[in-house]
Specification:
The chain is an alpha/beta fold. It is built from ten helices and five strands; from the N terminus they run αβαβααβααβαααβα. Strands 2-3-1-4-5 form a five-stranded parallel sheet, with helices on both faces.
């Protein structure tokens, strides 16, 4: 999809996302979206598309690094609980507790006992969240390996994207099928009536973002609230300019 077409289709969706945010604030509802998928699938891009026009004090992105030594001794879900939404908030998880069913399982970062315990506990944990009133939505972003390889190559060549590549990412390239099997086992154990999975094709990332956002908006209630008109009263004086009477002055401009 061309950029111009994408942007023209994204704009009305972002207006609807603003309506959603206003509805969350008005009702005090809590909402969280889990975005899972292979490396390079496009999780960061869709998170940016959702959040870029929303209030950052209300919409939070969670992308946790690997657990600390202390966190490794805690209940597995414990460090995620601190990031659950409060009233009126939307939380977007760039990977979530499902790390255990994906990268930790495939790369051997957890024991088989820990993995199986997770598959048993995750539906129970999510049922508790939903029963408490949290709106929970889970998405898997699907990408074929040929497109994944193209994106890995782009990241390797672009110095502005090199930070996205880690040794684990490079090693994971040889485990595409293993990740697929782990995903299917995860779906079998955690695709529930109260917290189902939704798969969105992300071979074309722009189309994928539009599809995911449209689907997400269709899942929530009718959230359009009337917008009260806002008129700015005239200033009582002429507009003023910035003036500096102390020892600090602006940095000299270097770009015209």
């Amino acid at each position: 999809m061309k950029k111009k077409e994408y942007e023209s289709l994204l704009e009305p969706l972002q207006l609807e996302l603003n309506n959603l945010a206003r509805w969350l604030r008005h009702t005090g509802a809590r909402m969280m979206v889990l975005l899972e998928g292979r490396d390079t699938a496009g999780k960061g891009g869709v998170i940016n598309a959702i959040s870029e026009k929303l209030n950052p004090r209300q919409v939070h992105t969670v992308a946790l690094s690997k657990p600390t030594e202390r966190e490794r001794t805690q209940w597995y879900f414990q460090r995620y609980v601190a990031h659950l939404p409060a009233a009126g908030e939307l939380v977007l998880f760039d990977r979530s507790w499902y790390n255990r069913a994906g990268v930790e399982k495939v790369m051997g970062f957890c024991t088989d006992s820990e993995y199986r315990r997770f598959l048993r506990q995750a539906p129970v944990f999510e049922k508790m969240l939903v029963d408490d009133g949290i709106l929970l939505y889970k998405y898997w972003l699907a990408v074929d390996q040929v497109h994944q390889e193209e994106r890995f190559a782009e990241r390797a060549e672009d110095p502005l994207k090199r930070w996205k590549l880690s040794p684990i990412d490079l090693e994971a390239r040889e485990h595409y099928r293993d990740y697929g099997r782990a995903r299917d086992a995860m779906f079998d154990a955690t695709h529930t009536k109260h917290a189902p999975w939704h798969v969105v094709e992300f071979d074309d990332q722009r189309r994928g973002r539009l599809t995911l956002i449209r689907h997400l908006l269709d899942l929530v209630p009718d959230v359009k609230l009337p917008i009260e008109p806002l008129e700015l009263p005239s200033l009582s004086t002429k507009p003023s300019k910035e003036r500096y009477d102390g020892p600090v002055t602006p940095v000299k401009g270097r770009y015209s």
